[in-house]
């Protein structure tokens, strides 16, 4: 089903290129593991099983990790009401609605497709945002579902997860088993080297796609609601509030930065920003400012209403 969110050909192209490159990397990675470990059955079963598990259960894992709980209309009528209206305007199936009891103001979308999607917001976000600002954030998250980039990021991140696990497995196996056989040492060293290289490449590809998809979601949300200024206000407010939260309280959430509306830990040097999951706040606000100028008076009645 085609939603009424603006299609983004550049985002679609970037997702296709990223998946193609990661697919080549994935094939090469599996082939290298088969050669090194000399057991194609073990490699294919383990890697394939983990891929299927991540694709089918990523929404549950994300909710569990961020303490999100599915909520009914009776519990959060205003939240359900905003999502109902946006889904009707966008012609999207309504996702499962969840709330995480965290003070950190944020939101994320997850799920393998629009029919199996979850939108989760934190209680910190609900307390801090005005209705129009909340609508902008939820439209942003729904656009991720409509553009299917949530599923792409989930699949794309799988290779990095596997590579990271392989590095840990090889390291701890060698460290704790204390094997002295030179062949075994060479194999484990090769596995670690290949896994580390694969992780680094997949990391860079995913970060580049993640930054672009956030800009695409901002654009789609601004056009759907007709109120880019409300989304800009939400971005400014949430970024400012997150900056006030102690760093140690944000570290547990950092692993899910790629899925958040704004990153849990977004501060750093210019070099660090190159590896960030999100574009800078300035980039996002500049884009929304341009969209606001493009919409002109067309956005004024919506703001007045």
UniProtKB/TrEMBL annotation:
Keywords assigned: Cell membrane, Hydrolase, Membrane, Metal-binding, Metalloprotease, Protease, Transmembrane, Transmembrane helix, Zinc
One Pfam family from the record: Peptidase_M48
Entry keyword annotation includes Ribosomal protein: no
Membrane spanning residue stretches: 12-34, 40-57, 150-172, 184-206
UniProt domain Peptidase M48: residue ranges: 76-289
Co-factor remark: Binds 1 zinc ion per subunit.
Topology within the bilayer: Multi-pass membrane protein
Major localization listed first in the record, in broad terms: membrane
Cofactor(s) annotated in UniProt: Zn(2+)
Entry superkingdom: Bacteria
Gene Ontology CC, one term: plasma membrane
UniProt enzyme class: hydrolase
Subcellular location as annotated: Cell membrane
Record EC number: 3.4.24.-
Active site residues of this protein: 141
Residues noted as binding Zn(2+) in the record, renumbered to the chain: 140, 144, 214
GO function term, MF aspect, one: metalloendopeptidase activity
GO biological process: proteolysis
Family: Belongs to the peptidase M48B family.
UniProt protein name: Protease HtpX homolog
Organism for this UniProt entry: Streptomyces mangrovisoli
């Amino acid at each position: 089903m085609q939603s009424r969110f603006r299609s983004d050909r550049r985002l679609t192209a970037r997702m296709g290129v990223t998946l193609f490159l990661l697919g080549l990397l994935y094939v090469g990675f599996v082939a290298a593991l088969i050669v090194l470990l000399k057991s194609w059955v073990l490699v294919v079963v383990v890697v394939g099983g983990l891929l299927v598990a991540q694709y089918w259960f990523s929404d549950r894992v994300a909710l569990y990790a961020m303490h999100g709980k599915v909520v009914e209309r009776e519990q959060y009528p205003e939240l359900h009401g905003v999502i109902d209206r946006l889904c009707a305007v966008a012609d999207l199936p309504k996702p499962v609605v969840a709330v995480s009891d965290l003070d950190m103001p944020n939101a994320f979308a997850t799920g393998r497709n629009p029919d199996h999607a979850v939108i989760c917001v934190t209680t910190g976000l609900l307390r801090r945002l005005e209705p129009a600002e909340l609508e902008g954030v939820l439209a942003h998250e729904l656009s991720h579902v409509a553009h299917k980039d949530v599923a792409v990021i989930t699949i794309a991140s799988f290779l990095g997860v596997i590579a990271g696990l392989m590095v840990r497995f090889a390291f701890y196996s060698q460290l704790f088993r204390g094997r002295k056989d030179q062949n075994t040492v060479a194999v484990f060293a090769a596995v670690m080297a290949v896994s580390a290289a694969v992780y680094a490449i997949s990391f860079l590809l995913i970060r580049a796609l993640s930054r672009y998809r956030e800009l695409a979601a901002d654009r789609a949300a601004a056009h759907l609601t007709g109120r880019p200024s409300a989304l800009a206000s939400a971005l400014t407010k949430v970024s400012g509030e997150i900056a006030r939260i102690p760093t140690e309280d944000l570290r547990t959430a950092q692993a899910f930065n790629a899925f958040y509306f704004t990153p849990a830990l977004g501060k750093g040097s210019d070099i660090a920003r190159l590896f960030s999951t999100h574009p800078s706040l300035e980039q996002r606000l500049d884009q929304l400012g341009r969209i606001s100028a493009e919409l002109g008076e067309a956005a004024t009645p919506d703001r007045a209403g």
